[in-house]
Amino acid sequence: MKTKIAVAKGDGIGPEIMDAVLRIFEANEVPLEYEFVEMGKSYFDAGHSTGMTEAAKATIENLGILFKGPMETPKGKGVKSINVTARKVWNTYANQRDFRSLNGVQTVFSKAGVSINLTIIRENIEDTYGGIEHMMTNDVAVGRRIITRPGSAQVIRYAFEMARRKGYKKLACGHKANIMKLTDGLFLETFYEIAKEYPDLQASDIIVDDLCMKLVSHPEMFQSIVLTNLQGDIVSDLCAGLVGGLGFAPSANIGDNISIFEAVHGTAPDIAGRNIANPTALLLSGISMLRYLGLTANAATIENALLYTLEKGVHTGDFGDRSVPSKNTSEFADCIIANLGKHPVQGGAFSQPNFECKTNADFHPSENKITVSQPDIEEEILGVDVFVESTLQPAQLAEVAQSKLNDKFKLIMISNRGTQVWPTGSVYTELVNQFRIRYEKADGIELNQKDVFNIAADVSDALKVCSVEFLMKFGDKIGYSLAQGQ
Ligand code: NAD
């Protein structure tokens, strides 16, 4: 029985490398059937705002698996990246990237005899990738960074499950919770909460800058690392560099219902159409997909053929021994096909499955899933941050802010770019034309939403209000960052 999957060849080098990979699959009689879908730059150009046709969307949602080549997002047309949109819309919340030293791919580490085998799990939906950005004033752009408890929990649980399945002993959480105490703090808190369910795995955390330093000096220290979206994006490209570059970096975007397998690299417009691109990253992504679909024997045979080919020094133009002539994309695929059934001397295909094997083609939800992690938690409004546009000096602005007070609030502080400028501050602090005025509830007062909007409306009589943020308390936890000295 053949499993049907959706395939999008992509733009630039996409069709060349996808054809090479599908030829290798065919030679190994992989029991897959392909439904080619219309996605990519030409569909943006043809007026499809999401970069794909309705038929493509329906096919992918129906089949549950998309194997895709890289795709180009047209620049400056107000369209969002098709790659990011696809991951978000279909809730492929865990981005798994497996990095491993490949014999035949020389790196500074292979030359030093250091073997790398590590997996990065990157949260794939949240963070700054929501693209929620606003110009608050002509000079001040603000982006929202969204980290949620359910979103963190699902990717962190996935990471622990993956680590266990792969036989790893440890999982680290990379973060910057020392600075972003609420967003990264929530991710880290969730990590240790879920770690309690996996006592067999050693859970630890590391600040992301320290992580980067250690990865480039001692990559063998790590087995698996889970990170938020942007930090994970950067750290996983760093790891691609450790094992030989983007040409060797596979990626699986895993969701509960739909999963997307693709290479990490882009469309490589500089070499597109010349049949010289390296198909290895897409092939490794395809091998991951075969394991995900339970086709582990095919995955192992193809992976061993690839490893054998690399070990023999066969290479495309972007890597390998320059004194040995390089192969073009199709010749490289031909060599792998010729080596099907052979085993590398060193390494060899992973014996553990990369993924919990599943197909979701039978799962079709009738409505959106909504997750609230603590529905009964008590919440209280403690005040409001009113963001205003102004070029007044802090003391003058404080006078205006005081003049708008009513008996429900007290004025706590004023900051500019997060630095407090009133009631204390330094005249050396350089200011831009946006301030945050923090009002908190007066003693004994219970605030409601309307009180918050009323004081913001009163402030708007004197100043341009750019934005209003509630200051909340959830259970016994303060839900906002405190000002200096508060
Ligand atoms: P890129 O990854 O396409 O290229 C960076 C460099 O690496 C280039 O010099 C390229 O020739 C080389 N390279 C990449 N893949 C290679 C391969 N398989 N074999 C040999 N050399 C390879 O990055 P870019 O130039 O920043 O982006 C080009 C386009 O790709 C952009 O439109 C971008 O939005 C898109 N992109 C798409 C995805 C995706 O579909 N998931 C990911 C990244 C970038």
TrEMBL record:
Q: Which UniProt keywords apply?
A: Glyoxylate bypass, Magnesium, Manganese, Metal-binding, NADP, Oxidoreductase, Tricarboxylic acid cycle
**What transmembrane ranges does the database entry give?**
none
Q: Name one GO molecular function term.
A: isocitrate dehydrogenase (NADP+) activity
* Database matches in SUPFAM superfamilies: Isocitrate/Isopropylmalate dehydrogenase-like
Q: Would the keyword Transmembrane helix turn up in this protein's UniProt record?
A: no
Q: Which cofactor does it need?
A: Mn(2+); Mg(2+)
Which reaction does this chain catalyze?
D-threo-isocitrate + NADP(+) = 2-oxoglutarate + CO2 + NADPH
Does the record bear Transferase in its keywords?
no
EC number, UniProt record: 1.1.1.42
Q: Which Pfam families has this protein been placed in?
A: Iso_dh, Isocitrate_DH_C_bact
- Domain Isopropylmalate dehydrogenase-like spans what residues? 4-336
Q: Which NCBIfam families match?
A: PRK09222.1
**What is this protein's function?**
Catalyzes the oxidative decarboxylation of isocitrate to 2-oxoglutarate and carbon dioxide with the concomitant reduction of NADP(+).
What does the similarity note say? Belongs to the isocitrate and isopropylmalate dehydrogenases family.
Which PANTHER family did the record assign?
A: DECARBOXYLATING DEHYDROGENASES-ISOCITRATE, ISOPROPYLMALATE, TARTRATE, ISOPROPYLMALATE DEHYDROGENASE-LIKE DOMAIN-CONTAINING PROTEIN
Recorded protein name is Isocitrate dehydrogenase [NADP]
What species was this sequence derived from?
A: Mucilaginibacter robiniae
